[in-house]
């Protein structure tokens, strides 16, 4: 069996950083993953909110072919038309004035933290550097971003951690207010905590955080790495709350599977990043930028943000109905658009295994939360099949399993 063979080869050569799924994907098309035995799976994870257009979308395959023959990489020492065109297309969707392109989510958040600190210290002349984040947040795996992350398991064994980070409880405005000091540079939040179990911040809380940041004269950084790019039925999740961040970050779905990150900011904050202040060899190169531009075009043509909103609202309703039917198995259903978490009353590994065997690929986070992040091109029929599959698995399970 190819899978067994691959599993053994992997164990001999790779750092064992991942608890991998018992599945090796040979190829993928649309919303279908195909393993080495030819088994097909419905992809409800999209490579962790990355492949919004599904796999091997013809327009993306086409731009990759064309761009590969035209220009792939020259570095940021040069003007690149593809990069500028992408920024021109993206910025009007963000309400921001400037963008810095990089290669991953962690790198985008690292850039946002550097930007906030440098803005305070160089532009405002204030010795402010502290970043306040929320418990159970996830902001990345670099030293600064894992320190910003509000989960101890991510930090263990990596000390000493860089100073200047504080974590406060989720949706507790008084605690946040108390944590702000004259050294505070910014508050950083995910609009909907992803890795933390699909936990949306309420519109009221986000608006109050915005007001608090204004009154304390500090910056608001929003991490849209998982929640952005139409995932929640808005282009950016924070837009649903009617707030404007000073800095926000994106990554996962930007280039539908190619590594890319972005830091967006206001004109005011962009003063922090003058020549030589920050940089990256690969970020926003011609190849990935051309692909990301095509992603935006396809999203527009196929109306994927609206699709995410409508299909997501329907799906949330279906999941809530399932919770009503199985109240002792499902304790909560949360989310917006096609970013949905189904919290089980018990650790979900057995349920997850059965769903995989039934042909459904999704993620289990925080032990109990089934996390759905399907490609935005997923069909209602496919989602219905999953709801029926989950009902069958949960109906037959004895809880606590
Ligand atoms: C995935 C993720 C990150 C980290 O992105 P990487 O590309 O894995 O470095 C940061 N923040 C959030 C909210 C994420 O979902």
UniProtKB/TrEMBL annotation:
Modified residues (N6-(pyridoxal phosphate)lysine): 252
Residues annotated as binding pyridoxal 5'-phosphate: 105-106, 138, 223-226, 281
Signal peptide coordinates: none
GO molecular function, one term: taurine-pyruvate aminotransferase activity
Pathway(s) this gene product operates in, as recorded in its UniProt entry: Organosulfur degradation; alkanesulfonate degradation; Amino-acid biosynthesis; L-arginine biosynthesis; N(2)-acetyl-L-ornithine from L-glutamate: step 4/4
First-level EC class: transferase
InterPro entries per UniProt: AcOrn/SuccOrn_fam, Aminotrans_3, Aminotrans_3_PPA_site, Class-III_PLP-dep_AT, PyrdxlP-dep_Trfase, PyrdxlP-dep_Trfase_major, PyrdxlP-dep_Trfase_small
Localization in the cell: Cytoplasm
EC number, UniProt record: 2.6.1.11
Cofactor dependency: pyridoxal 5'-phosphate
Keyword match Ribosomal protein: no
Keywords annotated in UniProt: Amino-acid biosynthesis, Aminotransferase, Arginine biosynthesis, Cytoplasm, Pyridoxal phosphate, Pyruvate, Transferase
PROSITE patterns: AA_TRANSFER_CLASS_3 (PS00600)
GO CC, alphabetical: cytoplasm
Residues the entry annotates as binding N(2)-acetyl-L-ornithine: 141, 280
Predominant localisation class: cytoplasm
SUPFAM superfamilies membership: PLP-dependent transferases (SSF53383)
PANTHER family, sorted: ACETYLORNITHINE AMINOTRANSFERASE, MITOCHONDRIAL, AMINOTRANSFERASE CLASS III
Family: Belongs to the class-III pyridoxal-phosphate-dependent aminotransferase family. ArgD subfamily.
Other comments on record: May also have succinyldiaminopimelate aminotransferase activity, thus carrying out the corresponding step in lysine biosynthesis.
HAMAP family assigned to the protein according to its UniProt record, in alphabetical order: ArgD_aminotrans_3
Complexes and interactors: Homodimer. Homotetramer.
Protein name: Acetylornithine aminotransferase
Species whose genome carries this gene: Desulfoplanes formicivorans
